[in-house]
Amino acid sequence: MNERVFLILLSLLSAIGGFLFGYDTGVISGALVLIKDDFHLSDVWQEAIVASTVGVAGLFSLLGGALNELCGRKPVIMSSSLIFVVGAVVMAISPDKEVLLVGRIVVGVGLGLASVTSPMYIGEVAPASIRGNLVVMNTAMITGGQLVASVVAGLFSGDTENGWRYMLGLAAIPALIQLIGFTFMPESPVWLMVKKDHPDYCKSVLMKIREEEEVLEELDQLIMYKEKLQQEPKTFQKLQIMVRNRSTRRALITGSMMQILQQLSGINTFMYYSASILLSSGIGTTSEVIWLAVIPAAANFIFTFAGMALIERIGRRKLGFGSLALAAVGLICLSGSYFAMETDDPQIPIPQNTSVHSNCFTAPSCSSCLSKSECGFCFHENNDGVFDFAFCLPYHQDDDDFSELGACSNQSEMSTDSLTWTHDYCPSQYAFLTVISMVIYLAGFASGMGPLPWVANAEIYPIWGRGVGGGISTTCNWTVNLIISFTFITLSKAMTQKYFFLMIAVFNLGSILYIFLFLPETKGVPLDKVEHLFDGESCFVGIKKNQYIYLDGSQAISPPKSPTLT
Fold it and tell me: Can you tell me the distance from the alpha carbon of 516 to that of 506, in angstroms, rounded to the nearest whole number?
């Protein structure tokens, strides 16, 4: 097999880890609106189903680094594949919410290991000339996985019995492909040489993925790299040096804050709960909103490539400003759509006579009805959009034999086929605005704040501290991701969604100010000079005059010395 073809095949198999990450975050959005009815999930249980995977993945992403050093990249990737297959099967056959939660936790283990190992493996097997493109492929596979998940969720959201089981269980197929495929793939040549000192084995691997004239040159580079690493201090010593030195401390704070701001921009509220958000807006039935969730997922996928194209053309800072501004516009529009829907709130004629006592019967409108957790809204809307019947009824969540539509039909003397009952949304002519707003938001986020924190963290640290700095900042990303995923439903209901999304918009505008003040422009700056952007007396390194050496040789000002590794 040709070396380049083998390399691409190897990278694609590894990038399945990114696809699985995207698929899981995408499919839970559609599956959750079905699971919550089947298992009668409370808000806390819905958040637990989502957040358990995130929390465990964050924990095992930290452990994954140590396992990669000890066992190698290939065994960790294969282990993550096997774990994901097991988790997907457990979720698909779950008899109750407790077993489903176990399956989500198992999947989190696999995702945590894969999120660290897949891009690392690709970066180590790829030649420098195409390394960037192959690593970016892993990012594209994440958003592609989210898009595929949305389509799969739509396909199984209609009349398919237990459709959510297929949504979650089908994830085992790509994981199984990766597990079988990697049986025939080689170990990382970097690990073989640097960690295990196997030059012959390393050379045999390089012969499969490099041109013959490149093998000896890269082998020499790996030997030099190994000798250099043996002279460097341990991880904890590196952290001490980074914290004590002013410039590296600033870089560490900025890198971590960029990951925190990415999560505070609200992306995972849309990735994990997009179908639930659309359902709450009253835009359609459960099956319809799951299909509609494909639209924002597609926008996220498409505009990821826009970010890749723009980041080198217009620079990191300008891309961040534009991305956050557009995302804020989308969030403000989304908040405004909920304000508009309030003005279109269907009114309920309060009945004078009823044989059943309930607070639901006193609700004057749909929104006031659904504000009571024990109530649901039953209505009939004619072809002109007029509600000629509307009623607020007790919601019998734990009674499978009770029919709300039947009870509603008794009140109205209309057939159940002509009535609609819901406890999730109020119908509104402005509901379509939520889809438009979400597309605007994701166009902004995916084109800038999606890749920007990862690019920044790959550039702003000195070479010796890149692993430590990147690890700490990634942990910050996972931590805030966990907090948001575990509080979205509760917080959005407490604040109401219109104010919740308005708050997220404010976070995005505040992030623009942070980037303006603290993130220096790194476009065109050699990696060995980037760390010096954080030197100087002022901490506002984003607005000071840059004193570094561009790749074109301009502004050739000698930077101060880097901290000594002792």
Answer: 16
